[in-house]
Amino acid sequence: MIIKSLKVENFRNISSLRMDFSDVANFFLGKNGIGKTNLVEAIYVNFFSRSFRTSNLKNCVKMGERDFSLSCDIVLKGITHNLSMEYKNGVKTLKVDGKRYLLGEYLKYGMIFVITALSSEIVYGEPSLRRKFFDSLITRIYPEYIYLLGRFRKIYANKRDLLVKGVEEKEIFHIWNVELARVYHEIYRKRVEFVKLINEGDVYDLFSRERKKIGILYSPTIDFYRMELKDVVGFLDENLGLEIDRGQVLFGPHRDKFYFTYDEKMAKDFASAGEKRSILLNIFFKMIDILDDLKGELPVFIFDDIETEIDSNRLEKLLLGLKDRVQVFLTSSKPELLEGMLEKKKIFYLRQLFFKQF
What we know:
This protein is an alpha+beta fold. It has helices at residues 36-48, 103-106, 121-124, 127-141, 145-164, 170-199, 229-238, 240-246, 267-270, 273-295, 312-322; strands spanning 2-11, 14-20, 25-29, 67-76, 79-88, 91-96, 99-100, 112-115, 203-204, 213-219, 257-262, 265-266, 300-303, 327-332, 345-351, 354-357.
């Protein structure tokens, strides 16, 4: 996929703006706080109808305004499309080529990966960070996965409400346990398939002089591999008392855990700071191959303040590795690190909401 242009209205500190992009690399350069991240965030929100910076899109509306709109022209498999996203009165409207789309269908166009200054926390932070990260990658490969997560959230919300209210009727919980077991099994299968795809053929740290192997481990709260669906329902029913005592849904995909391994060891415990930063980059390189093989599509990469995560040598190796394969968007407050890298690029120098293009 290639993003050809971006149109922005009333987003963050941007009143109105249109930008045309290079098919290879686009660098947004300028001082901290000038609005570089706002531009790449606008691209991300346009494709996913959510932000990687805030959980409330109302925070993205320009001060003094009530709504914002975003629009991108893209080329996907040789065909040009227009993707637009409007946020008005708290309601999101998604369109492809002028036709309204539901989120699940719209997300099929979301072939974008983002790495920010906080991305390395995914490797060593809370399990929820890794679940969210891997769920986003799985959705890129299996767009229907978003519906499975949506079904689970509804089931989870209903069962949690019953527990919070102190309901103890086993028959009522049995109904929700049957539904939970069904959707959990489907989510489990997709997660297992994804981990297998990543680990197949081995992944080695491209930024290390040594052959350091990178892998993913998946630990579900219920081992479906050894249990039939009826046994899972029985397990949930048997453990209902524990959930009632604690007032929590204790078993489900929301409590599954993922781990990164580095050189056959747990990355969060044994990998160095630099190695932890490299792990996600290597996973993304693997995703390029997977998407190319399965879908014949290549993603777009966004790197926000990348110099805070990797040194100049790794950055140059990263960009050369992506060259002629995927389109890149990158923000930085240090122009000297980037101006000599890559030939086919556009550089946008941001100065107080205005920019010069080269």
